Amino acid sequence: MRTIGTLIHHELRRMIRAKETFWLLIFMPLLLIFILGNALSGFFDLEDREVDPIEVGLVVLDEASDDMAGLLRTEEMAKWLSVRGFPDRQQLLDALEDGEIEYGVAVPEHFAENAASGSAAVWELYPGKNGDRNLVAESVIGGLLDRINFVQSAAAALGNPQAAEAAARGASGAEGSYVNVTAPDMSGRDYSALEYYAAQMLVMFLLYSGMAAGLSIVDEKESRTLDRIYAAAVKPIQVLVGKIAGNGLAAFGQALVIILFTSTVYGVDWGDRYAHLLAACLLTVIGSVSLAVIVAAFTNRARTVQAIFIALTMVMTFLSGGFSSEIGDFLERLGTFTFSYWASQSFIHLILNSADSIVQERLTVLGLIAAGLFLISALLGRKAVSHE
Amino acid sequence: MSLVRLRQVVKRYGTKLSVDHLSLTIERGEIFGLLGPNGAGKSTTIKMICGLLRSDQGEIEVDGESVRRHPLSVKSKIGIVPQEIALYEHLTAVEHLRFFGRLYGLRGRQLQERIDEALAFVGLTGHRNDRPGSFSGGMKRRLNIACAIVHQPKLIIMDEPTVGIDPQSRNHILESVRELNRRGATIIYTSHYMEEVEAISTRVGIIDHGRLIALGTIRELLMQVEEQEKLVIETEGLTDLAVEEIKRHASVQRVERRDGVLEVYLRHAQSYLQDMLYILAKHEVRIASLRNETPNLETLFLTLTGRNLRD
């Protein structure tokens, strides 16, 4: 253990003293989060611009409200909304979670009856993952519902006093709307551009930190210092553990700095589920360091490790929406096969304050991939740190 | 009593035989010079002794322990000074020694004392807090040595430790080798600078194509080529008759003539020098310069392999 401790200390000192460490691992991610978060915030704000029709899922659980719900499918609405029907609420929520649709609308059972009697009657709106698309959908559907609310209220007013009161409130645009906005987990929120890129850049730069482990191994081979370490009474497994743990700790420190800085300076809300946040960081670090060891097993040249790792990180970050949230269905689907996707999804759902089950599902997939990478790196580790 | 013993050791790289059934014994307290041209198998042999490479066949023992069966124990008894300067740019001299000292299991006061001793030994005490980037080539070589001796090993292996350094640093290193030996360490010193090996070694092994082609003290080895003493005579007016008469002299082995320069290979050149001068004078050949070249390890290597050591 003492030998491993010496190697970990050596690794941490190497990183701390490297000139590029601060710039590459701390300053760059914070700068990129700031630049991307501000420059691309237009995609996250409501502005007067061309918007592709939003994929809206609709479930009508009240037969009497069919006609009313059909207003969402009119030609006028088609400019904004592309509506797809679902048989029940669960399937609609599943499709929303899987990204098949961007927004959900449910007309609940007895809606028309309740509305007519003046009882509480609301449509349920389910925002998706993209803040700006949610706002557009809410705006369009909200406008329609304001009209429906007014007509409904006026009609109700002819029936009983309570309904008349509701009609008055609806006409004034004050409280008492029939529309209720909710997230799939009933507690969710949107994310800002800064929050989105904070999650994405955190993942991207944690991957870069992993690369440092691979570079360190190959550097030691190139400078022959690895021979020198092995000339002492040191086993290859100790070198491997020292490299992984040293660089893993450095990456962990990097994650902590990014999270604390973006939280206090940029106002990114990472949520209050610290165990989940810790797990997401830990699994991302394990995956990235393992990936670095795998790459280092196949080359003895630092430049090759760097080139492979940068290419891998860039491609995975792009496919997981790290540079732009709208990359097309095919690439988005391809992105689900990347490590970055599941890592960033874990962080984003923590920011979104999604339900525990949703976060845990992402963390489970992330954990499985990290475990797989770790196993492969353990198998190839001896080759990676071999000096022969 | 032997400290290092190799028995029929073989190492292959693919189909190339790098070390070919090498058997060798190195005694305690020796400075053993391992000579050979580049690619002869010196570094491979050393790496196998240190446990950095596994032999394909044969057995290697250090201090009575098998390298294959007890690699960590063997490693703790060895300090290796690699051919390349294997240092970290981000560590100071003292941090290098602390790092490697810890890897050899040293801690606390003992570690600090060994660090101070090693730095003083290589003359870097005044540069203990400097990084290699500010060092000259010779200083880097000395730090390279200090890293290998910080744990005071029984066996110190120096693989071409003087490559590319100034004469002053070279002398310092050679004197350090002698001093380490005086303090009780056994040294294996590899080089293709035969004059260095001649200067410090008590015994020499010459290796070529992975095989040991000569082994013994310098005196024993040079006896094999004593007949190859050479008189180099620069002449004016050299005639064929004079050359023929010199060739006929009983002590002369061989004569080579290049323009006016005559190279005469003979035994006991000092004894027959007068004879040579007499023959040349008789043929009215004037002598511009004359020197007597005694055989050395280079000559021996050339005789054994037909190649120069530095080829």
From TrEMBL, chain A:
Residues 20-379 form the ABC-2 type transporter transmembrane domain. GO terms for molecular function: ATP binding. The keyword Membrane applies. Keywords: ATP-binding, Cell membrane, Membrane, Nucleotide-binding, Transmembrane, Transmembrane helix. The keyword Nucleotide-binding applies. The chain crosses the membrane at residues 21-44, 196-218, 239-262, 274-298, 305-323, 363-381. It is a multi-pass membrane protein. It comes from the Bacteria. It is found in: Cell membrane. Its main location: membrane. PANTHER family: MEMBRANE COMPONENT OF ABC TRANSPORTER YHHJ-RELATED, MULTIDRUG ABC TRANSPORTER PERMEASE YBHS-RELATED. This is ABC transporter, ATP-binding/permease protein SagH.
UniProtKB/TrEMBL annotation, chain B:
SMART domains: AAA. GO terms for molecular function: ATP binding. It comes from the Bacteria. The keyword ATP-binding applies. PROSITE patterns: ABC_TRANSPORTER_1, ABC_TRANSPORTER_2. Residues 4-234 form the ABC transporter domain. Keywords: ATP-binding, Nucleotide-binding. It holds the Pfam family ABC_tran. This is Daunorubicin resistance ATP-binding protein drrA, Multidrug ABC transporter, ATP-binding protein.
